[in-house]
Amino acid sequence: MFDLIIRNANLPDGREAVDICIRDGKIAVTGSKIEATAATEIDATGRLVTPPFVDPHFHMDATLSLGLPRMNNSGTLLEGIALWGELRPILTREAVVERALRYCDLAVSQGLLAIRSHVDTSDPGLVTVEGLLEVRAKVASYIDLQLVAFPQDGYYRSAGAVETLNRALDMGVDIVGGIPHFERTMSEGAASVEALCRIAAERGLPVDMHCDETDDPMSRHIETLAAQTMRFGLQGRVAGSHLTSMHSMDNYYVSKLIPLIAEAEINVIPNPLINIMLQGRHDTYPKRRGMTRVRELMEAGLNVAFGHDCVMDPWYSMGSADMLEVGHMAIHVAQMAGIDDKRKIFDALTVNSAEAMGLQGYGLAKGCHADLVILQARDPLEALRLKAHRLAVIRRGKIIARSAPRITDLMLEGRPAKVDSAEYAPLRTATS
């Protein structure tokens, strides 16, 4: 007797018609046509069942604040920074908590059950830190929320940032952040990387830095981050987020840089939606793509994970907590349209991001947490194409969100009565 059985599931690795048996919040058995009973059974009817989506790079302190105190009319990074500077002094803990909890509701509906959020520590009052620590406690039963101490105005550039970052870590923030390319000089940026890696090593914490989020090919703080990662023995515990300067660097330098990043075992976190929106703003034509070298980094064996970054805030007026939308954009920007490419993109939204966050018990193997999403698609490729509808979201073996399939009634003489867009892809067989 099990608590829950999902039958006839397709899995991301290509297995089909799999039954998943769940007991005590964990996956107990998987296999074909398992003879067992459960308190609850769900027939997936050949649809994709996947571990939950994971967002390893987000800004929950600013989410859903679009229009406060005004709109970002230019849509640029710099106006977004200016807007946040206007909003931050009037933020209240209650408002931060209310918006963040609403976002977490949206995330659950999208099957997004793990989020790493950067938290601005530039405000001496640390209102955002207090707010998101409260949110982390409130959502702990249904979302794994990690917090990064992020000196958004610069670790050295902003007065008091050194002290407030340490105070945020003392309050219980999980991860050391930074933004070296926003310091006044390249040398101060490099010094901030060293100082922040030293703090992480001394405290036994991971590192996640906004790094080289610029079109400047001479912004090379990822090189310093890799070197300091190895100096302080932080291999595997460091993430470099954005790395957009790599799209402007010459190939020879990159041929040396990527092996250095790989040696340091740095997790790479591009943010396709935001990167393509904000970068290349000084270009006319030809216009650079705003994302790092995803294909080359993957081919070098690096763990590449995708973040959403922003949803309806001063920097980005779009977004819906849908990681499939992130992957959909990545396919286009990275020009990764092959079958194997798309599977790698899907992994970057799930297993790679879980690895970047260091999540334990994640996956579909026996003994893993029974955290699952049933999608209205038959495989990862179709899920990405359709940005597939979430039919059920399961946390620790309990259904926490559910919706009916998205079906359209069609009133056309001589044509089918209903249309399910998930049934339109040609079947892939060995002969076709």
A few lines on this structure:
This protein has 432 residues and is α/β, with parallel strands linked by helices.
CA gyration radius, whole angstroms: 22 Å
Instruction: Tally the beta strands.
Output: 17
Kindly report the CATH topology of the largest domain: TIM Barrel
Q: Number of domains in the coordinates?
A: 2
Secondary-structure content class: alpha/beta
Mean pLDDT: 96
Q: Major beta sheet, specifics?
A: 7 strands, parallel
SSE pattern, N- to C-terminal: EEEEEEHHEHEHEHEHEHEHHHHHEHEEEE
Q: Report the helical percentage.
A: 25-40%
Shape: globular
Q: Largest sheet, order of strands side by side? A: 6-7-8-9-10-11-12
What's the architecture of the largest domain in CATH terms? Alpha-Beta Barrel
Low-confidence stretches: none
In whole angstroms, the N-to-C terminal distance is 42 Å
Q: What share of the residues does DSSP label as strand, in percent?
A: 15-25%
How many separate helices?
13
| Relevant CATH superfamily of the largest domain | Metal-dependent hydrolases
CATH class of the largest domain: Alpha Beta
Keywords: Hydrolase, Metal-binding
GO biological process, one term: cytosine catabolic process
GO molecular function, one term: isoguanine deaminase activity
Organism: Phyllobacterium bourgognense
